[in-house]
Amino acid sequence: MIKKENLWFLTLFSLILVLSVYYITMPNELLLTNNNKSTNEKTASVNKEQDATKVTVEESELLVAMRVSLNDERDAKVEELKETLTNSDATSEDKNNAYEQIKNLNDIKGKESEIEQKIKKDFQLDSFVKIDNNEVKIVSIKKDHDASLANKIMRSVQEEFENKMYITVRFEK
Questions:
Q1: How many CA atoms, within 13 angstroms, populate the side-chain half-sphere of residue 18?
Q2: 51-85 confidence digits (pLDDT tens)
Q3: Which candidate, 76, 88, 135, 154, has a CA 20 to 30 Å from the CA of 170?
Q4: Full domain range(s) for residue 108
Q5: What's the total number of domains in the chain?
Q6: Residue 76 to residues 55, 70, 93, 105, 126: CA-CA distances in angstroms?
Q7: pLDDT tens digits for 19-60?
Q8: Prediction pTM value
Q9: Burial level of 143, CB count in 10 A (0-12/13-18/19+)?
Q10: Computed from CA positions of residues 102, 103, 108, 110, in that sequence, does the dihedral angle turn out positive or negative?
């Protein structure tokens, strides 16, 4: 069974995550709706100030969305495996397999993070990495698509693995 504390933590964390993504993607017009003239004047001056200042985003919303999606997918898988671990009807072999899969998922998360940091350090690119069996999918933020850079990234990533991996690099704007 899932402990109440864990369930509350996951519920509140999910709620905070959903609300923060919603707030970030919400248009400014919805935030500034009020019918008072003084408020309209304030919003006009705020809009002018916002137009004058440039906002720099450190990481692409696309990458964040991809990470959130992958984390949600993996968290659901881990929850299924934890249910198997705590199930009294499951055999010890099933429990061992579930434990090994959880350990493998954690190792993959660590390897993905390590590769993202390596790409950031070596190539100064924000990226998203997903490892699935012998496939490594990389999405990097760059305006122009550069085949030689993609090749360098693939070679750099392959150095991290003992076995031959199928590596794909995709550039997004």
A1: 7
A2: 555 544 455 788 888 889 999 999 999 999 888 88
A3: 76
A4: 57-173
A5: 2
A6: 35, 10, 21, 12, 26
A7: 888 777 777 665 555 444 444 555 555 555 555 555 444 557
A8: 0.61
A9: exposed
A10: positive
